Amino acid sequence: MQALPGFRDFLPSECSERNYVFANWRNVARRYGFVEWDGPVLESTELYRKKSGAEIVDQLFHFVDKGEREVAMRPELTPTLARVVAAHEREFKKPLKWFSIGQFFRYEKQQRGRLREHYQLNCDIIGEASLAADIELIALAIDLLRGFGLRESDFVVRISDRQFWTEFLRDQGVAEDKWQEILGIIDKSERELADHTAQKLGPLAGSVTEVLAKGGENDRLREVMDGLRARGLGGFVNTDVRIVRGLAYYTGIVFEVFDRAGKLRAIAGGGRYDNLVSQLSDGAASLPALGFAMGDVVLAELIGETASAREQMESTITAERAIQVYIVIAKEERRGDALQQVQTLRDHGFGVDYPLVPMKVGKQFQTAEQLGARSALVFGDEWPNVAVKDLRSGEQKLVGHEDLLSDLQESLTKE
Amino acid sequence: MQALPGFRDFLPSECSERNYVFANWRNVARRYGFVEWDGPVLESTELYRKKSGAEIVDQLFHFVDKGEREVAMRPELTPTLARVVAAHEREFKKPLKWFSIGQFFRYEKQQRGRLREHYQLNCDIIGEASLAADIELIALAIDLLRGFGLRESDFVVRISDRQFWTEFLRDQGVAEDKWQEILGIIDKSERELADHTAQKLGPLAGSVTEVLAKGGENDRLREVMDGLRARGLGGFVNTDVRIVRGLAYYTGIVFEVFDRAGKLRAIAGGGRYDNLVSQLSDGAASLPALGFAMGDVVLAELIGETASAREQMESTITAERAIQVYIVIAKEERRGDALQQVQTLRDHGFGVDYPLVPMKVGKQFQTAEQLGARSALVFGDEWPNVAVKDLRSGEQKLVGHEDLLSDLQESLTKE
């Protein structure tokens, strides 16, 4: 029996990589003063329908529960955020700077590399309308990736302004109910032949092409770029008005993060959605808001393809998985003494392992090496002394068993 | 709109408590040389039916997916463990010492305090038949709780032996197909009137009562108790043959952990299940195994009711959530300089926050205190110096802006 198609088992090495990603995300988000929260994995299907329309249901793992409720495994976090913020916003000072790390589910068509679950970091700022918040959020997205050892040459944040386009479309006299369709065509223009795009745009083709050729700067985009340059992050960003983000609810600055090589799907994406909290909460709360999501799958691909980032991950994981001390039981008469030492060392926070059953000494040393132990303590003929072997240098010394703890506290916490 | 009944939202303070539990679990399990893994939240319903019979489906969140598969949100981890171990066991040296932290789901009847999701730590040792593994596993369960500041006076591990009972029933000439029923009666005997139990036991009443009165020691139980006493953990355990664990698949030592006051449900429970991997994998792998699960809900109740454990949790969470530096922008002309400093300090790992928009200085200091900042840096008239205020002592000094990083590295990492 296997896992369901599109679902992953996390064996220890894969789980280490997953946890490495989570730990880095958490670490950088906290540095920015973001606090962690989470919602349920299962929500009312209506919550998603309300945000994304009835079609979303085709992509969900959804069902009717034993209490006759229509429920769905969450495909994204934003609807839950709006629900929770609407219910609790009075308890918190604004702006909220919240992040969350969780698993999300979509019933995607089966394709190679297309999963049906993934993990996502969501970072949102709620209750601040100023562009200063947009700058802070984009800086966070950049620093999250820098935290993995990724550099200017590895990724780029492409920043655009949804409001630029809505103003443009209004100027061109395009009816509001056509905007979403035209934004969709602009969104796709990068990946299509110019002629095909022009044909779809019809009478707008000329003016849109002109904007795209000029780059379509405006004051808001300039302010965001200046803010990021002032922080020394200018090399990680450029403006690109072709980015419009498919979703209808964005209202201002939007951005997507891509690998520089352009081989992968977007690593992260988000923007300002000032009306969404109000819409999703039926007006119970009305707060300007902005946020982005970063998934684990594309990020892991980019780390895997970037030597420096891969090395940072591997050395961090190796160091974390290593135990510190392996207890070698060379004489079974010493097992009781050895186990007392195991308990003492663990009580003092050391990672310690030992053979559960009698085993040849050579095999025990082999296990110690495989587990990445720094020290081996040999309980045998030397009792009441214990041979302490440094498994990196190969140096060995005898230590009285009562002094083992202090000896290890000194030698293993020194570096 | 609210969360579904039985599902929790984790606002920042609740999320901190959840993460505190996870971090402690992870920390102690690693000290024991256990490595982390995880499986999917959604599995084939058949996997659970196979282990627990068709009745289990009544308690599941289960449905038919868009690919016509019968699927269920996982109610427990063991079936996934058996599946993964059967597929991969050759890749690993035995014994495996694996732990996992994840969310599990059951459609429980709605009752106050009864949730439909909870988090669980699972710890398993696969591939070791010796009682040394049972001792190691129970020691881990104890040290996990000690890691929360819980003591001998707060909880007790009650240890029993399923094999003791199967031998007893065989001696008494009871047919094997009756064993599960009788073990169920013994399991419940503690919470029922003696007369009622005796009536249900029928002809076995006399001999069972005699065993329960005597305590039913045997060599295996003595060996386990001796092993735990040798590690200094004797005060946390006693033998209690009334513990049989409801589930049919246990084959040897079994145990449950309870609060000493006896007010709460079991905090953890587990035991040896030597035939289960083989049974669940249709014989693809046959490995002795043992494990336990510890849930987050009862554990949190016990921590909440135990002053020392509650204080440890609160002080850890307060320290973790605090940012280190708050940047006070006293003159808006200095905002650019202040933001450069924000970036520099965050780049060096400090947790830093600042006002996104202009704010009165008094309000900024108030925010700094609320965020638990250690230092406030005031960017104002003193430029190119910056006033550094220690928010605990109230001491203040002027530091040249180029020396801020080194000054903070010294003062904030000192303690």
Distinctive features:
homodimer, 415 residues, alpha+beta, BirA Bifunctional Protein, domain 2, Rossmann fold, eight-stranded mixed sheet
Description:
The structure is a homodimer of 415-residue chains. By secondary structure, chain A is of the alpha+beta class. Chain A folds into two domains: 270 residues, Bira Bifunctional Protein, Domain 2 (BirA Bifunctional Protein, domain 2), CATH 3.30.930; 91 residues, Rossmann fold, CATH 3.40.50. The first copy, chain A, has 15 helices and 16 strands. In chain A, β12, α13 and β13 form a beta-alpha-beta unit. In chain A, α6 runs antiparallel to α7, α7 packs across α8 and α11 crosses α12. Chains A and B meet through α1, β1, β2, β3 and α3 of A and α1, β1, β2, β3 and α3 of B.
CATH level-3 fold name of the largest domain in chain A: BirA Bifunctional Protein, domain 2
| Count of helical regions of chain A | 15
Classify the beta-strand content of chain A into a percent band.
15-25%
Which chains make the largest contact?
Answer: A-B, 87 and 87 residues
CATH superfamily of the largest domain in chain A: Bira Bifunctional Protein, Domain 2
Specify the CATH class of the largest domain in chain A.
Alpha Beta
Q: Tell me which CATH architecture of the largest domain in chain A applies here.
A: 2-Layer Sandwich
Distance between the termini of chain A: 46 Å
Largest sheet of chain A: 8 strands, mixed
**Structural class based on helices, strands and sheet pairing of chain A:** alpha+beta
